[in-house]
Amino acid sequence: MLKGTLLVAGTTSDAGKSVVTAGICRWLARRGVRVAPFKAQNMSLNSYVTADGAEIGRAQVAQAQAAGVEPAADMNPILLKPGSERRSQVVVLGRPLAEVDAMEYGAYKDHLRTVALESLNRLRAAYDVVICEGAGSPAEINLRKGDIANMGLARAADIPVIVVGDIDRGGVFASLYGTVALLDAGDQALISGFLINKFRGAAELLEPGLDMLRQLTGRPVHGVLPWLDGLWMDLEDSLALDNRRGMGPPTVAEPPDPGALPGPGTSSGSGVPESLRVVVVRYPRISNFTDVDALAAEPGVVVRFVTSPGDAAEIREADLVVLPGSRATVTDLEWLRRTGLASALLDRRGPILGICGGYQMLARSIRDDVESGAGRVDGLGLLPATVEFVRDKTLSRPVGEAYGHRVAAYEIHHGIVSVDGGAELLRDGGVERFLDGCRVGVVWGTTWHGIMENDDFRRAFLADVAFVTGRRFVPAAGVSFAALRERQLDALGDLIERHADTEALLALIENGAPEGLPVLPPGGVG
């Protein structure tokens, strides 16, 4: 029986560590291996709530789904959620521990290293294989002393490491060589090989470089993974949004059966399909923007992220504007006003959906002595609600109903939203209840994340948006977002199975790093 651990590191953020980890998990799961993902420390504003109420990174949730197992806090024991350029909330085993700056964080490192290793040991005991994902790059030598996610973890737990490089960025050979060379001899002894990711072009042109890299480092390239258009997975942070400013539907590596994903709806009169244009405001501390992935998956819906004053016209003209979650509601609201995008929102006569932090911004007033310390500030005033931030974080998996359909969701927030006037206003004041929030006219607000992943609800909501905007759009019946995600994860498993040296990966998992790997000068910092 296969038993062991592997760590997937990367030359940079967004090199493809999350995708490769998910792909290896799916490939192993299809072989009947009991496998779990693990990321000791994750910095991300995209998070999720497990069944037992723990908050972990969305990427580890997707990797758990790839492995066919239930997400758990041990899979991401330390989650850092930046609230500003210098301060982050530290979430440990799914619960907030402290708000710290970069210097204060050092005081927690010994404790957090113990937490991470204990989580890894529990996973190793419960599963046959654990596939670990590193964070950033292992060659961030200024951070090596306190590292608990890359080589610090690998050294403490004796884990072989493969390094993923993104060839689409350019300079992949220098990045791979330099990553190894900057490490000390003990770290280098665990760097067991490389994977090149996002390759497009003629493979024969790459071969000489692969041979030279092998000669220079004494380490093999365990595969060249091709660029796949439309390859998509729950993102870890907003860096990857730079490549997704305009989002069509996520697709899979191989086109699905045309009968499985019907095309855009049409008007029964004209037969002419019409797209529904959705604009998502990308503020500086945007969180859980994965909420709109299911919208982009709907045929005929075009999703676009906007972030600059020049995008005000798009906000005014879109069929639907989404204000997503925010890790810094008051600060991001001030940014909306400073950029002029708030004025564009107030000028709109069309639908607006606020989710969590976005819902809070739509309220009349916000009292925040917790997140920003700003005290009372005015909201946009588009919904008759008041927000008060409290120190205890709400983490739950609620279930409700809207448009006659069941809605399963999750919530992560410090801000408590109350409808002004309460039940009386909801009954007699022209305000409708919407999940845990409210609706006034064409403005909706809820603290629930993940609502658009409920297929029947999503179609009913989009049909309502189309009706109030007068668009000739009918959501396509039969589109399953869960099935789409499964096909994406299968595509990642196929990527590993078809393009990686799977025998070499199995050997590393079972036997650990090969002995006698050469040490590259200058031998780096450890």
Rg calculated over all Cα atoms: 24 Å
Instruction: Write down the CATH topology of the largest domain.
Output: Rossmann fold
In CATH, what is the homologous superfamily of the largest domain?
A: Class I glutamine amidotransferase (GATase) domain
* Helical residue percent band: 25-40%
Question: What is the general shape?
Answer: globular
Summed up, the domain count is 2
CATH architecture group name of the largest domain: 3-Layer(aba) Sandwich
- Return residue spans where pLDDT drops below 50 for at least 5 consecutive residues: 243-272
Report how far apart the termini are. 34 Å
Tally of helical runs:
17
- Characterize the biggest β-sheet: 8 strands, mixed
